[in-house]
Amino acid sequence: MVNISCASITVTILTVYTEKMSTGTEAKVGAVLNDCDSPLAARFRALFTLRGLGTSEAIQQICTCFSDSSSLLKHELAYCLGQIQSPLALDELARVIQNENEDPMVRHEAGEAMGAIGDRSSVEILQTYTSDSKPEVAETCQLALGRLNWLLDSSNEEFSDNNPYKSIDPAPPLQDGSLEEWGALLLDTSKSLFLRYRVLFALRNQGGSDAVNYIVEGFSNSSALFKHELAYVLGQMKDPSAIPGLEEATRQK
Length: 253
Ligand SMILES: [Fe+2]
Hints:
By secondary structure, the chain is mostly helical.
């Protein structure tokens, strides 16, 4: 049994010390991120540096950038806030998802980030947007709620995630089944999106060209959100056998 109070005190002291030492870094890197005249590549690099720092100042710098005009950059801001998994970002993410003038791609990622952070307080707002008029926003909120409910289910406390990529995923990998069964489930649109995402991450963790082929077959699906996740996962896998499928997907209009 871990001594929670001692562990918490130690973490708090280390966090305060680390933040005191690194505030200047966040300000400098944040200035690059928030400079709309900097090349996008430099701004993305600054963003991922801030993600790595993960401090409250880094989160603040990332949140400031949501006033930018680039939807792609803002999608990535939300992604990184989800990966940091700090509840400090929740207010800003809620503001983004509630802004119906914002690009749906950005709102979708804000919902995904709320699911990644996994705080019980997000249930109500995610529930509200499960029926959003933009399918990518609605589907993401359904998935995020699925993840939150899964986390809140005490029977999953012993679950061990074998994710070799160390990313915070929208759904935990399915543990049981064969590669063939996963391939069939991935394409079965009668199943919930949450289950199919679980299958997707199981296939990713399994790896190999057969798993890649099953994932590529998923591009025949009509859900833009689902296909966006397939492409993300194939990028993580870095398996060259995915290249023809990805090329074909880029040609789809
Ligand atoms: Fe996304």
